[in-house]
Amino acid sequence: MKAVSKIYMALAFVFLFAPIVLMLVFSFNDSKSLSVFAGFSLKWYRELLRDEQTLTSVKNTLILALSSSVISTVMGTAAAVGIDKIRSKWYRTAIDTVTNIPMVNPDIITGISLMLMFVFVGRIFGASTSLSFWTMLIAHITFCLPYVILQVLPKLSQSDRALPEAARDLGCSPVQAFFKVQLPELMPGILTGLIMAFTLSLDDFVVSYFTAGTGFQTLPIRIYGMTKKTVTPKMYALSTLIFFAVLILLMLSNLADRDESKTVKKHKKTK
After folding, report:
1. Which of 72, 101, 164, 252 is deepest in the core (most CB within 10 A)?
2. 131 phi and psi, to 5 degrees?
């Protein structure tokens, strides 16, 4: 059984990471070939730096991802604190169900429904163009928000509820007690939610495609447009850079979780 489990794990890792390894290798290929490695070269990275349209779409994607992740993290943290204070079981169940809908709902349904809503509201107010950067921002906040809430809620249940009350007894206002006592305990969950929201927004295509305006193009939409003709190896170079950026974010998130676990263990030992 151990040998079978090891073989299964090896095959799983091969299927998961073989495409990424191939992309990394051929991003340094000297030719356009996808089957023959002609030699190591930084040619496609230099070509990427000369492609203004692709760099503009990368800038747009980063602006959208940063904006939506920060806003959804602030809103999600506030929502999680509010949900945690609900004591009615049926009301809590209803809120949890509504929160989970954007996660289980297919992306194409979310994208089409949001597009229809934006067009409907735009026509009511007589707007010349209903879809723009702001509609994409609202859409990204909508599907990122539940993930932030689900990262912060467990941290709230694990935190010591007596600490905010003790802080208020010592003269802190409820707001001061939250920012000075409760927020530091929630920070690992907030950072994880922020990173998750950022990567989800960075990766999204379907919702962005339906809610994008004509003057704002993200990287997934640009790559989709390129597939109608041909995808050049400079896209492999760009994907490689994005892969390592996300990898660094995940490593930072794991380090934050380890620091938190060490702090919890030291706190238990002192007790």
Report:
1. 72
2. -110, 135
